[in-house]
Amino acid sequence: MRKRDFILFLLASALLGISQSIDNSFINNFFNDTFHLSVTQRTMLEIPREFPGFAVVFVSTILFFLGDVRLAALANVLAAFGMFGLGYFSSGMGLMVAWLLLYSLGQHLFIPLSNSIAMSLADEGNMGKRLGQINAANTLAFLLANLSFALIFKVVAVNYRVVFLVGALAFFAASLLILKMTPHSPQNVHKGFKILIRKEYRLFYGLNVLFGARKQIFITFAPWVLIQVFNQGVSTFALLGFIIAGISIFFKPFVGYLIDKYGERFVLAGEAFCLIFVCLGYAFSQRFFIGIGHGEFTIYLISACFVFDQMIMAAGMARATYLKKIALNSEDVSPTLSMGTTVDHVLSMIVPWIGGFIWTRFGYEYVFLGGAIIACFNLLATSRIQIPKHDSVSRSLAQ
């Protein structure tokens, strides 16, 4: 039964790679081309986009009776309707924001559930490997979708309606596959979904807060640098997405291997260290290399930073496995992952405001200098990670 569920979830994750490709390659250009947003307006849009992430723990608690599997299916149905609405019923800013809220709610509900379900399909000692396999399937579909979009939109004009329809259908198909998986028992569901805050998980919460700040800088401002400073369009993002996915098919399983072999502290510290240099690349590339190759070298360097940042996002698997290993009992995992998503979005809603002000007042370079400082704090936090030799979940199972 576990093997069947793993295959179903693997296929669902692959379908979600198509929708994620559309999100990554098109949604920022959709905002720019359709609504002609300024930097300030774009940063303001992150409030409705990220608020559902903050609300995840509360919505999950209300819907606890569904269990991980059914709630994951519902999350993708919500995302499907939201993406469809963005494409077909966004005649004004107000309607667009309403559909964006629905779309984002579905996405954010699924984020903690995805890791929880994936780890439940793994044997003890190979959680990193299982997460890597599922992420690799997702990335392969992401790659093929980006390649297709890059080829198509090199020769025809972008049609956002058609693109968002494809993404909505992929979300819906993924929800059907997840519904075919074995649901959790009502007893475990009731215990698993509740608002849960424990002092034992404070480092996990802290890592998520820092991730929220780091993530939002790159979600909001990294693509906006390429779009508004270097005038790059949809085809560039489709190509970059293709490169990211091509490398990540192998890189994500490798990160899973590193988690199992060397541990979460090694992986998360490596991500933080690399991120410092990515931020410095964004901050100083234009200043020091603008004269080389008529500015093209700078675009290549910024694009390389964009690609590398997306790759090292795979280290997020280590936060999930870290929690799994330190959890006081197995029923804490899903609600604590949801709480982690909520706390990381506290800063996700604040950072765009601060970053937008810094960009407007001082320049985009200083936004990424702030990102480098956050990465330094993250490196310091990861040094405190300690994994018990025999995690409490294993002990509770043994009892």
TrEMBL record:
Coiled coil: none annotated. It holds the Pfam family MFS_1. One of its GO terms (molecular function) is transmembrane transporter activity. Its main location: membrane. The keyword Transmembrane applies. It is a multi-pass membrane protein. One of its GO terms (cellular component) is plasma membrane. It is found in: Cell membrane. Gene3D superfamilies: MFS general substrate transporter like domains (1.20.1250.20). SUPFAM superfamilies: MFS general substrate transporter. The chain crosses the membrane at residues 51-67, 97-122, 134-156, 162-182, 203-225, 237-259, 266-285, 297-318, 366-385. Keywords: Membrane, Transmembrane, Transmembrane helix. This is MFS transporter. It comes from Desulfitobacterium metallireducens DSM 15288.
